Amino acid sequence: SAMLALPPLQWLGKLSYSLYLWHWPVIVYATMMVPDLSWPGRLACAALTLALSLFTYNFIENPIRRNGWLMANAARALIPAAMLTGAGVMATYANARLAVDGLDPSQRIIAETAAQPSTARAR
Q: Which residue from 10, 51, 113, 119 has the fewest beta carbons nearer than 10 Å?
């Protein structure tokens, strides 16, 4: 399509993976901080997502993608990727623990009840 050949859309296309990675955490944390987010707040989220995406694309994605030393041997790329994945899992777990610890007693009861396995029989 001719529209997809437009330079601004090509530029956004290059950032699409970074935008995909950053949009949800920005939205989640913004709505945690301000539950009733206004339109200016939403635009600020979009701007923050774009800024984080630009940073990630230019300083993380491209340097890794163009690093000949990493690409010369699969283990050189897989070991750091596995370590980063593990760090991400640990950070997610820590964040979840902090979220549960911050609940008031009535919310904690609901969360603990929801976490218990069902006693209903599977058919």
A: 119
- Identity (one letter) of the amino acid at 103? L
**Cα gap 61→74, rounded to integer Å:** 17
Separation CA 83–CA 91 (nearest Å): 12
Identity of the residue numbered 14: K
- Answer yes or no: are the C-beta atoms of 60 and 84 closer than 8 Å: no
Rounded-to-integer distance, Cα 65 and Cα 30, Å: 31
Distances (CA, A) of 8 to 15, 23, 48, 54, 115: 11, 19, 18, 14, 46
Structure tokens at 13: 């296309």
Q: What are the structure tokens assigned to 75, written together?
A: 């283990």
Mean pLDDT lowest among 1-5, 18-22, 78-82, 113-117: 113-117
Is-contact 111 100, C-beta < 8 A? yes
Q: Which residue has the higher pLDDT, 75 or 9?
A: 9
Structure token digits, residue 120: 């209903």
Question: CA 73 to CA 52: how far, in whole Å?
Answer: 29
